[in-house]
Write a structure and sequence with these properties.
By secondary structure, the chain is mostly helical. The chain has four helices and no strands.
Length: 172
């Protein structure tokens, strides 16, 4: 991965993308049953495709997650990211990088596997998509626990960086 510039904080755009993607992921979890029902009907259909109904929101949400993740990574590479908290120990910095990397990988893999399951239609891709959901949930839990660890135990103001934009990080 190319070296990423270091900014003092996150820009307003980076913060907005973080929270919009987070909200979309919640929406994906809330609409996943509709898509599962549709996918089962799709696999049973002798020919043609059943009407998607409410499952369309899950498909659209997945496309938005993929698109906004591309935008987010582009902004991350061009605007940089703030340095690690000085309160972070080596294990904390390593775990943070692994969790963030894993989340980014899944923000690509989840929509792509979901679209492959729908377009092919493929039971194997559907099962992969479903399995990846649980990995993503685990990584999100670790991400939130890490944020709480910094906020409540280290008291280093790390959460504030994803709430209040650094005006110096805005594009000129």
């Amino acid at each position: 991965m190319p070296s990423i510039r270091r900014a003092k904080g996150y820009s307003g755009l980076q913060i907005a993308l973080h929270w919009i993607i987070a909200a979309l992921i919640v929406a994906q979890f809330l609409t996943s049953d509709m898509m599962s029902d549709y996918f089962r009907a799709l696999l049973r259909a002798p020919e043609g495709r059943p009407v998607m109904g409410g499952a369309v929101w899950h498909a659209v949400g997945g496309g938005l997650v993929l698109l906004l993740t591309v935008v987010r990574l582009t902004v991350r590479m061009t605007h940089g990211v703030p340095p690690d908290s000085p309160a972070s120990e080596a294990w904390d910095r390593l775990l943070s990088r692994v969790v963030h990397f894993g989340i980014y990988v899944l923000l690509f893999a989840m929509p792509l596997s979901g679209f492959a399951a729908y377009l092919l239609p493929s039971r194997a891709m559907g099962e992969l998509h479903e399995s990846l959901k649980w990995v993503l949930i685990g990584l999100i839990v670790l991400h939130v626990l890490g944020a709480f660890y910094h906020h409540f135990l280290l008291k280093d103001g790390l959460i504030r960086r994803m709430m209040v934009p650094d005006r110096g990080a805005e594009p000129r």
